[in-house]
Structures are given as C-alpha cells and as structure tokens.
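Consider this:
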Amino acid sequence: MGRVTAPPRVARPCPACGDCHGDQAILDLDGVCPGCGHHYRIGWRHRIDLLLDADSFEEWDRELRPRDPLGFVDLVPYSDRLAQAHTATGLHDAIVSGSGRIEGMAIGIAVMEFGFVGGSMGEVVGERIARAMERSAARGTPFIAITASGGARMQEGLLSLMQMAKTSIARSRLAEAPVPYITILTDPTMGGVMASFAASADAILAEPGATVGFAGARVISQATHEEIPDGFQTSEFMLHHGFVDRVVPRRDLRVTLSRLLRLYPTVSTEAVRRQA
C-alpha cells in the first residue's frame, strides 16, 4: 500500500493549539498535529494502511448498496445525498469490512468512514458489521471494529434503529465462538453506534481526544439542567470513569493491537465447526 499524500494547500490552524501546519506535515504524522498531538479525522484507507500488514486486506460484501426505503427528503432527497457521499469518498456506504493480518495474525476488520453521511449507521452499515462478525466467528479469527459515527441514520428511520439489535446479536456470535473482539473509538463515536456494537467489545481502545457518548453534551445539559464537567465525553474522561480500557495514540495502535491479540488463545475453524 502506498504512502498517503495530500494535495498542496495553505497551512491551516490546528483546532486544538492554533498552530499552523501544512496538510503534508500533518499526514507525515498520520493525521496528528506536529505541535500538540491533536488527532485529526482520517479516512478508512489510511487506517487500513496504518494497522494491517501490507497488501493483506481483502474486502467483504462490496456489492451491498443502500436503499431509499422512505423516499426521504430533507434539504435534498436522500438518494442525492448518497450520490454526493459516494462522489466524495468513493464508497457506497459508511463502512468497509474485510479480512487482513496484523504481524501475520489473521483478523476480521470493519472501518467506518465519517466522510460518508457523518458515518451514520443504516441498513448497509449494520448488515456489513453483522456479516463481518459472523464470518470472523465462523473462521475463528479475532474481530476489530474502528468506529467513527454520529449515530443512526435518520433518513432510514426504524430500519436504521434495527441495526443496533442486529449488530448486538451478531456480536454474541463472537462470544459464542469464542474469539476476541476489540473496538477502537475514534472521533466521533456517538449515538446508536456507541449504544450497540462499539460498547460491547472485550477490549475498548480510544484515540486521544475523541468524542465518545450517546447524546450530545448540549442535549444532555438541556435535558438534565446540569452543568457539564470539563472534558465531558472525551476518551480521556471515559477512561477515567472506567468506560474505555485504554487511550492509545494513533501511531501506537498497531503495536497495541498486536500485543492484545497475542494475549488471547487462538480458535481454529475446526473447533468452531464442532461447536456448531
């Protein structure tokens, strides 16, 4: 896999420290501010390149495409919004799943793409997650999910909310196998994604500074009439309160995953078949 490069662009200020750095300087650090370590959002391909052995990724279920079951229209028709997202990202929905290897260890993996309709979870996202989990369980390989989502996709209504149950049931297949399940929460991981498969892993990692939660801080403050504490819904806040197991800088994720995976006993496909 080739190195990710950025088109020439005038330097922009970091949203955390205010220092200005060019896009390529940021990409040279894999999307991290050279000054303060702020983690910018990066795309699914960049994450695959960072985590997996070179040329080991094989995509699953590429043929799945989203529908417009409600004929939904807000500012623009949902079908137009999907077309715009496809043009911007090259994807047909907000997730890519497949198999790969980390330091030679076979895994199943799913990576969410926030650039596609805010990484929202509709029918296709839920189906690809569920299929990837079930395939990993059947193969006896660990499963890793990298989340980046604003939550359920409102344009698909109840069909979107159903994916919370679907992915939660599929997650149980991993436990029955059993094979390890690890999530990496990136900015942001919110709503229905957080309330389903993102929060149910054996080990929950998070990138520094990621926004993690269910409802937004403003909504919670308005509903409870309580003052929100500093750092609320950051990965560090979640670590302090026991919801996240570890906050891991982006460049350390591959090594951390490798160490974690080696702690778990492997499960052969034949052993899984005998349980079926």
